[in-house]
Specification:
With about 130 residues, the chain is an all-beta fold. The chain contains no helices and nine strands. The radius of gyration is 24 Å and the shape is rod-shaped. The two termini are about 40 Å apart.
């Protein structure tokens, strides 16, 4: 599977947890939506004859399918202020794309194959933020 396009939006909701003795630390939740255009390629090798055959009679091929996936994203973040204009931000997130399955027909040989994908993505980021 190859990702061809990907975009989305993320909402950060949170703030200073208070009671930790520091006004320089913020904790927040992440929530969002992602969209991705992917190409799924199935490679196959087998006997495509109505009669049984051995390895010498095997044929190879491939089937491509373009998919548009929509996903939700959830995560958590920490931001520590380092002075008045700079902060260090760490975020961890998890993205779950929809389950997709489809039927690939081989009409010349009277059989079908049902490929399926369950795509997920996990990420960890660390960044330096400058406020103006």
């Amino acid at each position: 599977m190859a990702k061809e396009t990907s975009y989305g939006a993320t909402l950060r909701l949170g703030g200073d947890p208070g009671g930790w003795g520091s006004r320089r630390l913020a904790v927040y939740l992440l929530g969002g939506v992602r969209f991705a255009g992917v190409r799924f390629t199935s490679h196959y090798t087998g006997c495509f004859s109505p009669e049984p055959c051995g390895p010498a009679g095997f044929e190879s091929g491939r089937s491509d399918r373009d998919l548009d996936l929509t996903a939700w994203m959830a995560g958590i973040g920490l931001e520590w202020s380092w002075g008045k204009r700079v902060a260090i931000r760490a975020e961890a997130g998890h993205v779950v794309y929809a389950h997709e399955e489809w039927v690939t027909r081989f009409d010349d040989f009277a059989f079908t194959v049902t490929p399926a994908i369950d795509a997920r993505e996990a990420g960890l980021s660390l960044g330096l933020v400058r406020f103006f």
